Amino acid sequence: MDWAEIVFVMERSQRTRIGSRFRAHLNGKRIVCLDIADTYKFMEPTLGRLLEAKVGPHLRSRGG
Description:
This protein is α+β, with helices and mostly antiparallel strands. The protein has one domain (6-60). It contains two helices and two strands, in the order βαβα. A two-stranded parallel sheet has the order 1-2. Strand 1, helix 1 (12-21) and strand 2 (30-33) form a beta-alpha-beta unit. The longest helix has 16 residues, at 45-60. The two termini are 19 Å apart.
């Protein structure tokens, strides 16, 4: 967590858990909830496309 600038989570419950567990390491960092249900299988193409669509704008706005 120390090196991250933005932390992405799929669901709000994950955001809450990370915020509680790593509070000391999140100073000045953003946690972005993508509002994607954690129901996809590993490497599922649909999930990959959804992640690209939702994460991409956050990375492009930072010059990544």
